[in-house]
């Protein structure tokens, strides 16, 4: 069968290309709801170094999305099943190292084509069934939520048991999702969010406290921290975290930065801090995320608040409009209703 | 129920001096017609995929389907007609022999040589054929259309903004199509080059589904070159 793929060929220019696909041993998924990530925006606007762009493009963007199973010759799914597609694609098994950290793993919309296609052709192992009655706009960014869930899983394994107060730095989407999941998973802990913008911080109604980073009371101390800032702000966030954290606390790094970020290692040493990075997610994190959706439906209600815009995509021009609108919005997720 | 008729009735005389019809030519690793059938095979909404083939090519078509499509029990090859509408009516007559055809049932008719059809086009054909009784897939005309009745001089130049180029699928309510076709005189049938015209000359509405420039019809050798080269881009 011939599949149509919508690839970014150069900044802001998307073209259709066509590829032959094999129906055997694959599941054919029709994407229905996609969500734009910062990484997509960096490619779309050409905000990566020229060497990276030359190496990665042309490539179909988008690695957050759900779709409907149209055809499955593997016998794993029923036609009409709603599935979330896992962008991480391992090519080897490892008993110790998680699939999202294996250097050999491929990743959709980074190493190979993302979800902007007429059909996504997938191994059944890269699909996880989700309830058909789920809020599909929220489910569209399950991948981002699973990144938070993954980070919290690692935190659970690595952090000591005193978790009276957990700080989350960053008032963006990742900060919102991470602090929300922390509140659900650790209901006894006080979740404190540190950000820059009053309007955004006002949305964190589930948090026990929120502070602007330049108005932090002197007596605030935290046991553990999550850094969801990224970019140039990472350094300032890490400085504050190292300053406010109790000894032997953990610092979970989630914010992606294009730049090398200096860290006050003297204080990391003196306080005996455990700093660990987390990136992306794997199949078990998706399964865990969907379990959270089922067990705590109010999570979905909170997540509805960060759906900023839903834009129907019927032609290539609509894709450009959606990326520009998303780029100009300061908070929230842009969901693409895929009808191309 | 929803049926699809893959129209492979033509013998491809415009494809140059080739000994086999254009739908059987290879595009990438498979014959064009197989790519086209697969697009409908993966959509479970279709009850049956009826492939209409020239009589002498029926066995060949069946063999190809067996070779390339392992689970092909939904695909049926029958004989096409002399003209396009005869071919469609052969499909209608074949469906008509089934005992449980209902008023809401529709048929999606598609050229076997348009393998680049997209999911949206198929879904919108189903939707609007159900809603309006008939729909046609079109794209806005990019070239100016001129009308000439003698082949020598222009009779008129219609406003391009009102002009569209017809693609396929064309989709219809089965019972309505049959009734309207039976209303048309034998003389009119001879000049009915397009199935949607059966509806329009009966003053019935035909909804326009937005096609795609890429939904090309592989008619001439040049088209096959274009199709082959764009497929190689990945």
TrEMBL record, chain A:
The keyword Protein transport does not apply. Keywords: Metal-binding, Oxidoreductase, Zinc. Residues 213-294 form the Alcohol dehydrogenase-like C-terminal domain. GO terms for biological process: small molecule metabolic process. Pfam families: ADH_N, ADH_zinc_N. Signal peptide: none annotated. Belongs to the zinc-containing alcohol dehydrogenase family. This is L-threonine 3-dehydrogenase. The lineage of its organism: Archaea, Methanobacteriati, Methanobacteriota, Methanomada group, Methanobacteria.
UniProtKB/TrEMBL annotation, chain B:
It is an enzyme of class 2 (transferase). One of its GO terms (biological process) is isoprenoid biosynthetic process. Keywords: Cell wall biogenesis/degradation, Nucleotidyltransferase, Transferase. The gene is ispD. This is 2-C-methyl-D-erythritol 4-phosphate cytidylyltransferase. InterPro entries: IspD/TarI, IspD/TarI_cytidylyltransf_bact, ISPD_synthase_CS, Nucleotide-diphossugar_trans, TarI. It comes from Candidatus Methanobinarius endosymbioticus. PROSITE patterns: ISPD. Its EC number is 2.7.7.60. It comes from the Archaea. GO terms for molecular function: 2-C-methyl-D-erythritol 4-phosphate cytidylyltransferase activity; D-ribitol-5-phosphate cytidylyltransferase activity. Pfam families: IspD (PF01128).
